[in-house]
Amino acid sequence: MKHHQARVLEHKEAGGGYRILTLEAPGIASRAKPGQFVHMRIPHLDGSVLRRPFSIYRADRKKLSILYKSVGRGTHSMKSIRKDDEVSLLGPLGNGFPLGRTKEVPVLVAGGYGVAPLVFLATRLRRKGIIFIGGAKACDILCVRDFKALGWDVRIATEDGSIGVKGLVTKILDEWLSPGCGAEGVVFYACGPEGLMKAVGERASYHGSRAWLSLDKHMGCGVGACLACVQKIKRNGAVSLLRVCREGPVFEASEIVWD
Fold it and tell me: Is the peptide bond before 53 cis (omega within 30 degrees of 0)?
């Protein structure tokens, strides 16, 4: 896997402790597909040998962006990255979302910064659809402007009720899926916490729809060598352990064996 030196074009606050890092990386950006990720070596992080995986939030022919939150030592250290710095990337990695058939209505479901790869997906899908975004509070609701600018229907839920409907995102999803709401002929795409992934898969199965889920597992190497991110997957009647970083991170919901 080739290492790419990417120049920092912009690094800005996105509110609520979230930040957007935009990099000049034509060798990756031009080949990136929605749902794929990059593995970044964090500069200024002494003593760390492991890279960090980040979903691709946006990409064009020359540049890509990632959306992240400072949640640990690595992402906290990223605050020191400045414009014109260079960072080492591996990518694009993994298998992304299939874009589906145009006759299906795309239904996107996101939890927290799991919304990032779904923005990229929405820019590539041929048909506009609906996006359900959930978070603990208002500052965890991200990328609403992105989806509205693309002409998508945006529905929001927060656990504390500070914006949108009070409750889990599955609450507003279930209301939309209720009889008479036109939930037939849809395809689901989701990214977020494991509980949300499982819930979306269950609803897709109940309604006879396909669902593509982007799993979030701890990754060591990002290229399938360390086997730190395996997931039980059932195919052709047999259960095997597949690598989320290599065979995933996107799997069809009906294949996933949840622990």
Answer: no
CATH 2.60.40.420 fits 3-93, yes or no: no
Q: Looking at the domain 105-213, which fold is it? A: Rossmann fold (3.40.50)
Per-residue pLDDT of the chain (259 residues; tens, 9 = 90+): 668 999 999 999 998 889 999 999 999 999 999 999 999 988 776 655 578 899 999 999 999 999 998 777 778 888 889 999 999 999 999 999 998 766 889 999 999 889 999 999 999 999 999 999 999 999 999 999 999 999 999 999 999 999 999 999 999 999 999 876 656 789 999 999 999 999 999 999 999 999 999 998 887 787 778 888 999 999 999 999 999 999 999 999 999 999 8
User: CB burial class (10 A; 0-12, 13-18, 19+) of residue 237?
Assistant: exposed
* pTM score of the predicted model: 0.93
Structure tokens at 64: 């890509």
* C-alpha dihedral, 218 to 8 to 16 to 47, nearest 10°: 40
CB-based burial label for 138 (10 Å; 0-12, 13-18, 19+): middle
Structure tokens belonging to residue 99:
């874009």
Judge if 3-93 and 105-213 fold alike in CATH terms.
no
Contact 95, 36 (CB under 8 A): yes
